């Protein structure tokens, strides 16, 4: 006779529980049929009593077994829910850890990049300039790796929320082609874009990252021939879509590796620029971004002939917003008074050297208290503020801007620097009317923004 399971039995999955319940139902049906046959054959009251007693015992046993099975199924479901919640909590913890670790890693990297830029501006010999360039390239690789790992973590945790809007493909692809053309020309490759002028519905930043990674990979692993970015319209109905295809005449990808190339740190046997393989993260983050955008991604490749990567996305019926063109501005900062509030000493020193090399007058402080003391001592009011968002003891650099505005009644242009990419900080900075620059700060970007704001 079957016995109800004890509490030490392993949890059942849903399919096994359903099979056992169906078996019990068949047994109960057979018992009922047996009772009916016994009543027809025996007919006596005593026989009927015996049959009913036997049936009651068997039904009780089967009911207890069925109850036990249901309890085990409930425990299994509860265990699955708990495991899912634990996995989600672990994913969120990983994202928070990587965000905090990235902030701490990007701080010294930011100082190093600013110092390297200031070094390159000095009168150096040919060998020293070459070493400076090598340092800059090494720092760029480290920065890309940290940011990519953080992006992957955010995408896995579902933190990234795409902002879908109309995107003009012609403008987006023209910018990408222009940025990669010098790289292609150095390798003697042709780089071209073809296709109709379409507007698609996508997140412009994520879409740009996807296409940039695809073009970068294509150029990196192509030694002769070229790379073509083609846009093709698909479908004629209201659900019309298009495909962005990146063709290359590179080494190709073996069939056995075509799924593996989307895994983290898989680099295969192909060598990239300078004989060095890439980091093995480009296609991994491309796949995650494509999934977040719901843009199907396809790969077709033949060894020795080349590769085609295709991204399918919907066509938009709405025209995109056109950016307002900026007038050219001077690139000299001579005489500009810049107040820097930065609590990381290496970053503050490097930023001060860089701004002084651009002929600006610089005043550096660690916090609001230092700024207040300088004002009390007669410091000239600055023309522009460069503020670190995260200061010591939980203070925020935005407080310096609001304090100066309240004290003087004048609003100065503000640049806020941070290694944190959270949308909350972006919204807070935008609400103040300030400009946000993520660390590590690119000196050329900082200089262009300074001259624009001062003009």
From the structure above, extract its key features.
4 domains; histidine kinase; 455 residues; 12 strands; alpha/beta; kinase activity; single chain; phosphoprotein; five-stranded mixed β-sheet; Heat Shock Protein 90; Sig_transdc_resp-reg_receiver
Characterise this structure.
This protein is of the alpha/beta class. The chain has four domains: 73 residues; 68 residues; 150 residues, Heat Shock Protein 90, CATH 3.30.565; 118 residues, Response regulator (Rossmann fold). The protein has eleven helices and twelve strands.
Task: Give a quick summary of the entry.
This protein has 455 residues and is of the alpha/beta class.
CATH superfamily of the largest domain: Histidine kinase-like ATPase, C-terminal domain
Helical content (DSSP H or I, runs of 4+): 40-55%
Query: In percent, how much strand structure appears in the residues?
Result: 15-25%
CATH class annotation of the largest domain: Alpha Beta
* SSE sequence, one letter per element: HHHEHEEHEEHEEEHEHEHEHEH
Q: pLDDT average, as an integer?
A: 79
What is the distance, rounded to the nearest whole angstrom, between the alpha carbons of the first and last residues?
A: 91 Å
Low-confidence stretches: 273-277, 323-331
Strand order of the largest sheet: 2-4-5-7-6
Quickly count the helices.
11
CATH topology of the largest domain: Heat Shock Protein 90
Rg estimate, integer Å: 33 Å
Question: What would CATH call the architecture of the largest domain?
Answer: 2-Layer Sandwich
Tally of domains = 4
Global structural class: alpha/beta
Number of strands: 12
User: Biggest sheet, in brief?
Assistant: 5 strands, mixed
The outline comes out as extended
């Amino acid at each position: 006779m079957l016995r109800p399971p004890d509490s030490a039995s392993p949890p059942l999955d849903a399919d096994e529980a359903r099979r056992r319940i169906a078996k019990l139902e068949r047994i109960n049906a057979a018992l009922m049929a047996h009772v009916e046959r016994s009543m027809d054959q025996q007919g006596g009251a005593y026989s009927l009593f015996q049959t009913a007693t036997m049936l009651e015992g068997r039904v009780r046993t089967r009911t207890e077994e069925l109850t036990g099975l249901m309890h085990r199924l409930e425990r299994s479901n509860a265990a699955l829910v708990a495991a899912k919640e634990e996995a989600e909590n672990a994913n969120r913890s990983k994202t928070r850890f990587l965000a905090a670790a990235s902030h701490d890693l990007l701080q010294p990297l930011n100082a190093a990049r600013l110092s390297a830029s200031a070094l390159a501006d000095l009168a150096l010999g040919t060998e020293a300039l070459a070493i400076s360039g090598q340092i800059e390239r090494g720092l760029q690789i480290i920065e890309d790796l940290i940011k990519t790992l953080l992006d992957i973590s955010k995408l896995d945790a579902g933190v990234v929320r795409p902002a879908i809007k109309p995107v003009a493909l012609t403008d987006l692809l023209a910018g990408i082609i222009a940025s990669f053309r010098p790289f292609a020309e150095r390798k003697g490759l042709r780089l071209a874009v073809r296709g109709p002028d379409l507007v698609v519905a996508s997140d412009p930043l994520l879409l740009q990252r996807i296409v940039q990674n695809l073009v970068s990979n294509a150029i990196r692993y192509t030694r002769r021939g070229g790379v073509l970015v083609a846009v093709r319209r698909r479908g004629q109905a209201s659900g019309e879509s298009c495909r962005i295809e990146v063709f290359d005449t590179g080494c190709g990808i073996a069939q056995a590796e075509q799924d593996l190339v989307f895994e983290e740190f898989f680099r295969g046997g192909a060598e990239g620029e300078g004989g060095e393989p890439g980091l093995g993260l480009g296609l991994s983050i491309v796949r995650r971004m494509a999934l977040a955008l719901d843009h199907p991604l396809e790969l077709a490749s033949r060894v020795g002939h080349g590769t085609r990567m295709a991204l399918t996305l919907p066509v938009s019926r709405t025209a995109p917003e056109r950016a307002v063109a900026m007038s050219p501005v001077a690139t000299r900062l001579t005489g500009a008074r810049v107040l820097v509030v930065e609590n990381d000493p290496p970053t503050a020193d490097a930023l001060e050297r860089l701004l002084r090399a651009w002929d600006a007058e610089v005043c550096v402080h660690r916090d609001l208290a230092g700024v207040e003391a300088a004002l009390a001592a007669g410091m000239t009011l600055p023309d522009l503020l460069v503020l670190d968002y995260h200061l010591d003891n939980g203070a925020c650099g935005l407080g310096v801007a609001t304090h100066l505005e309240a004290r003087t009644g004048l609003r100065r242009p503000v640049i806020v620097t941070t290694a944190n990419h959270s949308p909350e900080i972006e919204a807070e900075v935008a609400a103040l009317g300030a400009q946000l620059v993520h660390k590590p700060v690119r000196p050329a970007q900082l200089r262009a923004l300074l001259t624009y704001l001062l003009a």
